[in-house]
Design brief:
Distance between the termini: 87 Å
Strand order of the largest sheet: 6-3-7-9-8
Strand content: 5-15%
Number of domains: 2
Mean pLDDT: 91
Number of helices: 22
Helix content: 55-70%
Shape: globular
Radius of gyration: 27 Å
Largest sheet: 5 strands, mixed
C-alpha cells in the first residue's frame, strides 16, 4: 500500500511538472508571430549576423559589431533560420525554446539545492521545486525576455543547468556531472557579458562545499597533508579538476579570440558604469535604491523590458518573494558562528550569494535604472524565494485550518497567472508605446519598400542615432531592422552621403528615417522633379 501511494504521488508530481511546462510553453509561444510587434534593431542585428553565418559557414566566437556580442546565441539563430527561414518569428523562437527549457532547469536545480537540507522532507523539496518553476513559467519578467531576440535569456538557461550539474556532482561524486557542469559553465561565457560574474558564485559554491566537508572531517584530527590526500584521492575531490578542465576546453576558442583581438574586451560598460560618474559613491547608492525598489515599487521604464514603470513582480508574487527572502536571510544569521556552515545555512548563503552577485551588472551601472535586462540573472533565485514564501504560508496556515490553507495556496497560484497573462497579452502587447519601442514603423517601411518594383533603386537615409555598423564609419543600427527583411535594391547611406546617389535615368526612391528640414531642402535642391509621398511616419521622395 505504501509503495502504491509513493507511485501515485510520483505520478501526480510528474503530471504537475508537465502541466507547468505546458503553461510555460503557452506563455512563450502563443502569438509569437505578432507579439511583440516590430523588430528592434538589436534583435535584427543578431538575425543579420546569423544569416551571414549561414551564408559563410563562419561561426564566430565573438561578433564585434554593435558593442560586441558573444557568439552562441547567434549560432542558435542560424540553426533556426536553416530550418524555418529567417523571420522575426524564427528569430524569437530560439529565446522562447530556451525560456521553456529553463523552467525544467530551474526545477532540477531547486531540487538539487534543497536535497541535502535534512529539515525539509522530500515532499516539501518537490513542492518548492514545482512552485519555483511555476513562478518562473508565469513571470512577466521571464516571459518577456523569452519572446525577444536578446541573448541574455541564454545566460539564464546555462546558469540553471550549470549549477544543477555542479550540485549533483557534489552529491553523487560523479565525474560525468563535473564534466557536464564544466561544459555548461564554459558555454556560459559565449552567452552574455554578465555571465563572467558567475565565476565569483562558482568559487563561493566550491568554498562552501569544501568547508562543509572539512567540518565533517575535523573530528578525525588529521594533519593538513593527510586531510588533502583523503579528500582528493579517497573522496574524489580530484574530480573538481575535471570541472575546470571542461570549462577551459569549452572557453579556449573565446580566449584565443580575445588574445588575438584584445580590443574586443573593451565594451560600452565603461561609459555606463557608476565608476565613470563624477560621484561614483552617490551613483552607487542611487543605483542600489532603484534596484531594490524595482520588485515592488517602480520597475524598468523601458517598454521593451517591462510594462514601463510597473514593478517587476505582481504584488502577490512580491509579497511571497519578500517573505522567502527574509526566511532564508534569517537562516544565515539566526545561529551561532560555530554552526555557520550547516547544510541549511550553506543553502541560504548560496541563494543570497547568487542574488547579490547577479544583481551587480545592474547595480554597477547608471543607465536606464532600474534595469530588468541586466538583472535577468536573478530571476531563478527570485522564483525560489517566492516558492519558499508560499510554502511557509501554506504550512503555517495548515496547522489551524486546512481548507483555508488550500484556498490561499490556490489564490497565490491562480490570480498571478491570469494577472500576468492580462498584463502581457492584453495591456502590454496592445500598448502603442510597445510598437514604437520595437520599431514597428521600420518594419512597415520595409514591407512598403519590398512591394516596390525591383527596377527602382531605393535609398534609405539612416539619420537616426545608433552604433555604426560596421564601426566606426558604417550606418547606425536602425538600418539593421530594414536589412533583416529587405529584398532588392535597397542602399543605406548616412545623412552626409546623399551625393553618392546617382539617378542615371533610373527611377529612385529616397527615404530619410528622421525628418530634417535641412536634409529636406538639400534633396529638393538636388532633384527638382521629385514627388513626395507620405508613408506612415516617413516622407518618401520619388524621382523619375
Amino acid at each position: 500500500m505504501k509503495a502504491k501511494k509513493k507511485y501515485f504521488n510520483r505520478k501526480i508530481h510528474i503530471i504537475l511538472l508537465l502541466l507547468i511546462i505546458v503553461i510555460a510553453a503557452v506563455f512563450r509561444l502563443w502569438q509569437l508571430q505578432i507579439t511583440p510587434p516590430g523588430l528592434y534593431p538589436d534583435e535584427a542585428m543578431n538575425g543579420n549576423d546569423a544569416i551571414e553565418t549561414l551564408a559563410t559557414g563562419e561561426f564566430k566566437t565573438f561578433y564585434p559589431e554593435n558593442n560586441g556580442r558573444e557568439g552562441l546565441y547567434i549560432w542558435l539563430l542560424s540553426f533556426s533560420f536553416k530550418i524555418f527561414e529567417p523571420s522575426p518569428w524564427s528569430l524569437r523562437l530560439v529565446s522562447a525554446i530556451l525560456g521553456i527549457l529553463t523552467i525544467l532547469g530551474l526545477y532540477l536545480l531547486t531540487k538539487e539545492i534543497f536535497y541535502r537540507t535534512k529539515t525539509n522532507s522530500k515532499n516539501k523539496i518537490n513542492q518548492i521545486a514545482l512552485l519555483s518553476s511555476f513562478f518562473m513559467a508565469i513571470s512577466f519578467w521571464h516571459i518577456n525576455f523569452s519572446r525577444i531576440g536578446f541573448r541574455a535569456i541564454l545566460m539564464v538557461f546555462l546558469i540553471c543547468f550549470a549549477f544543477y550539474f555542479l550540485l549533483r556532482a557534489f552529491r553523487k561524486n560523479s565525474a560525468l556531472n563535473y564534466i557536464l557542469a564544466g561544459l555548461f559553465f564554459g558555454l556560459g561565457f559565449y552567452s552574455y557579458l554578465a555571465f563572467r560574474l558567475v565565476v565569483l558564485l562558482l568559487g563561493i559554491t566550491i568554498l562552501i562545499q569544501a568547508v562543509i566537508y572539512w567540518q565533517k572531517r575535523k573530528k578525525q584530527k588529521e594533519n593538513f597533508r593527510k586531510f588533502l590526500k583523503i579528500a582528493f584521492l579517497n573522496h574524489g575531490w580530484w574530480k573538481i579538476g575535471l570541472l575546470f578542465l571542461s570549462i577551459l576546453i569549452a572557453v579556449l576558442p573565446l580566449i584565443i579570440t580575445f588574445v588575438n583581438n584584445p580590443e574586443y574586451l573593451i565594451s560600452r560598460t565603461g561609459n555606463i558604469s557608476i565608476f565613470a560618474a563624477e560621484k561614483p559613491l552617490q551613483e552607487f547608492g542611487v543605483s542600489i535604491i532603484k534596484t531594490a525598489g524595482m520588485f515592488h515599487i517602480y520597475g524598468d521604464w523601458n517598454w521593451r523590458h517591462n510594462f514601463a514603470g510597473s514593478p517587476l513582480l505582481h504584488w502577490t508574487v512580491g509579497i511571497l518573494f519578500a517573505l522567502g527572502f527574509m526566511i532564508t536571510f534569517k537562516n544565515i544569521f539566526s545561529r551561532s558562528i560555530k554552526e555557520f556552515f550547516t547544510i541549511k545555512r550553506s543553502t541560504s548563503i548560496f541563494l543570497l550569494s547568487w542574488f547579490v552577485i547577479m544583481l551587480l551588472p545592474s547595480i554597477l551601472t547608471r543607465e536606464g535604472m532600474p534595469h530588468a535586462l541586466r538583472s535577468i540573472g536573478i530571476i531563478p533565485i527570485v522564483c525560489i524565494y517566492t516558492a519558499i514564501g508560499l510554502i511557509w504560508i501554506f504550512y503555517w496556515l495548515l496547522k489551524s485550518n486546512k481548507n483555508f490553507a488550500i484556498l490561499i495556496l490556490l489564490f497565490f497560484i491562480i490570480y498571478p497567472t491570469f494577472a500576468n497573462y492580462h498584463k502581457y497579452f492584453i495591456k502590454w502587447s496592445n500598448n502603442p508605446n510597445v510598437s514604437a519601442a520595437f520599431r514597428q514603423d521600420l518594419v512597415n517601411l520595409t514591407c512598403h519598400l519590398n512591394h516596390l518594383s525591383k527596377d527602382i533603386n531605393k535609398y534609405v537615409i539612416v539619420n537616426e542615432p545608433g552604433v555604426p555598423i560596421p564601426y566606426p564609419d558604417g550606418v547606425p543600427t536602425p538600418a539593421q531592422t530594414i536589412k533583416f527583411s529587405a529584398k532588392d535594391n535597397i542602399n543605406y547611406l548616412k545623412e552626409n552621403q546623399i551625393n553618392q546617389i546617382k539617378t542615371q535615368d533610373q527611377a529612385i526612391i529616397i527615404v530619410p528615417l528622421r525628418k530634417n528640414p535641412a536634409l529636406d531642402q538639400q534633396i529638393k535642391n538636388k532633384w527638382s522633379d521629385l514627388k513626395i509621398i507620405k508613408i506612415n511616419e516617413f516622407d518618401m521622395y520619388e524621382i523619375n
